[in-house]
Specification:
By secondary structure, the chain is mainly α. 70% of the residues lie in helices and 0% in strands. Helix 1 packs parallel to helix 3.
């Protein structure tokens, strides 16, 4: 799998989680659930009651994980650039890592804000 395909896959997964976490109108109505009369204990953190609630918990976890990872990659990129010692290949590798880490961090932060903006414009609660 090439780097571009991997990046597209990661961004696609993030977008799907953001969309699913923001959609509250996709839940089943109570009459269709009346035929099922059993209960499963919910041991998940946050106690999600729908797929969109579960997607919101997963998306929150991924954002909380991605931000420190991006910071570590930025530090690593700076280390590569500082220790290149005149080696243009190593400096270029550090610069590329820095650009991609900042781009990924921007996508993560803008993505969450964009979903909130769309929800507020459409008055979706």
């Amino acid at each position: 799998m090439s780097k571009n395909n991997f990046l597209v896959l990661i961004v696609s997964i993030a977008v799907v989680f953001l969309i699913l976490s923001s959609s509250s109108s996709m839940s089943l109505n109570q009459t269709s659930l009346a035929a099922f009369n059993f209960q499963i204990d919910n041991y998940l953190a946050g106690k999600p009651t729908s797929i969109s609630g579960l997607a919101l918990i997963i998306a929150t976890f991924l954002v909380a994980l991605a931000i420190p990872v991006a910071v570590l990659i930025i530090i690593y990129a700076g280390f590569l650039m500082l220790t290149s010692g005149g080696n243009p290949e190593r400096y270029k590798k550090g610069l590329t890592a820095l650009r991609l880490a900042v781009l990924g961090l921007a996508i993560i932060l803008i993505g969450r804000g964009f979903v909130s903006l769309i929800q507020s414009l459409l008055s979706v609660k």
